[in-house]
Amino acid sequence: MKVLLVNGSPNPQGCTYTALHEVETTLQRHGIGTELLYLGKQPVAGCIACMKCFETGHCFRDDAVRDIQNRLAEFDGIVLGSPVYYSGPTGQILSFCQRLFFCKEGELAGKLGASVVSCRRGGASATFEQLNQFFTIANMPVVSSQYWNSVHGFTPDDVRRDREGLQTMRTLGENMAWLLKCIEVARANGVEQPVYEPRMRTHFIQPK
């Protein structure tokens, strides 16, 4: 079992990393493999709706998005982490997720999802909700914690003093580890994954 943790902050070891690391440490204590992906300081290109990924199975851009698209089978869960930028996630992680999910919804189905947010003061719940939207459109069970998954502080040292926030991260890790083990036991005992109907896509202007 393995979980991908995505750091959408431009700071490699800032507040978002501090929160993700708390989740990661808890997962590792339960024997769950982890990989921490730092998106970096450079822009992540957004989706241009060229539809090439539907022909090839991956984005035409050769970057971190394509790498993860090609390696999705390795991961049983994904944790998205972002600081709050104007009450929303960073542009890097939004572009990453929009391209990752656009052509890979089928492969993401059944994997566990969770989001983690860091903020100085406000905007955490709006950012948390926006990140969770990616999971709920892709048949991914969302892992919860004892509170909304946010930490508060302006520096990593501030976050390390946010005792409730870090406890929330550890509880998230505990819940994700438990659910991953439950899924593993279910598979070993012949419990099949859901079988979905063919995807129906409609709009609100229907022919007469």
Automatic annotation (TrEMBL):
| Segments forming a coiled coil | none
Source organism, top-level taxon? Bacteria
Q: Which residues form the NADPH-dependent FMN reductase-like domain?
A: 1-152
- Which classification does the entry list for the species? Bacteria, Pseudomonadati, Bacteroidota, Bacteroidia, Bacteroidales
Fetch the Pfam families from UniProt.
Answer: FMN_red
Record InterPro entries: Flavoprotein-like_sf, FMN_Rdtase-like_dom, ISF_SsuE-like
Keyword terms of this UniProt record: Flavoprotein, FMN
* Single GO MF annotation: oxidoreductase activity
Q: Which PANTHER family match?
A: NAD(P)H-DEPENDENT FMN-CONTAINING OXIDOREDUCTASE YWQN-RELATED
The name this protein carries in UniProt is Flavodoxin family protein
